[in-house]
Amino acid sequence: MPVNTKIKIVKKQKLKDDIIKYVCLAPEIAKDVKIGQFIEIKVSKGVEPFLRRPISIHNVDKENNMIEFIIQVKGKGTTALSQIQEGEMLDVIRTFR
Ligand SMILES: Cc1cc2nc3c(=O)[nH]c(=O)nc-3n(C[C@H](O)[C@H](O)[C@H](O)COP(=O)(O)OP(=O)(O)OC[C@H]3O[C@@H](n4cnc5c(N)ncnc54)[C@H](O)[C@@H]3O)c2cc1C
Predict the structure, then answer these.
(1) pTM for the full model?
(2) Mutate to test the pocket of ligand 1, among 55, 60, 95 (most ligand atoms within 8 A of CB)
(3) pLDDT band at 2 (very low <50, low <70, confident <90, very high)
(4) 20: CA distance to ligand 1 center in Å?
(5) Cα–Cα distance, 41 to 55 (Å, whole number)
(6) Is the CB of 83 under 6 A from ligand 1?
(7) 48: domain range?
(8) Residue 88 backbone dihedrals phi, psi, to 5 degrees
């Protein structure tokens, strides 16, 4: 059953010009995620872009309830996501179980 939850960006790191790594506090996800599974992220604070973007889990730290994911800034969705800053919350749907 999918779960809709909020995760907090605790670290945002530019790996290359268009590649960003996010470390997020995500208790409801970290507890049972496996690397390679994906979450559906609401990429903007407003209405557009409307569709969530599936993004893969790159790493997980279960002890500290942290997950990591990496994006390549490509189009509308990842550009919007790239503008959300450390300390802010992301609305995600956990689709795996
Ligand atoms: C299982 C999975 C895991 C992924 N993991 C990663 C990852 O770890 N890192 C990463 O950078 N990218 C990942 N992607 C790709 C990511 O979801 C985006 O499609 C990609 O980053 C480009 O999105 P954009 O919004 O920047 O581009 P856009 O140009 O806005 O979108 C690209 C195209 O996809 C269409 N589209 C976008 N979202 C949806 C949706 N929810 N349903 C249907 N069509 C849609 C758009 O209409 C457009 O045609 C993954 C995709 C999948 C399917």
Answers:
(1) 0.90
(2) 55
(3) confident
(4) 15
(5) 7
(6) no
(7) 3-94
(8) -85, 165
pLDDT of residue 63: 96
Collapse the DSSP code of 52 into the 3-class scheme (helix H, G, I; strand E, B; otherwise coil) and give the result.
coil
- Look up the CATH number of the domain holding residue 87: 2.40.30.10
Give the separation between CA 22 and CA 9, rounded to whole angstroms: 7
Per-residue confidence (pLDDT) for residue 95, from 0 to 100: 82
* Cross-strand pairs, 41: 53, 92
Ligand 1 atom with least separation from CA of 58: 8
Question: Is 2 buried (19+), middle (13-18) or exposed (0-12) by CB count in 10 A?
Answer: exposed
12: confidence class by pLDDT, cuts 50, 70, 90 = very high
- Give how many domains the chain has, as a whole number: 1
CB of 42 within 6 A of ligand 1: the answer is no
- Give 25-56 pLDDT, tens digit per residue: 999 999 999 999 999 999 988 888 999 999 99
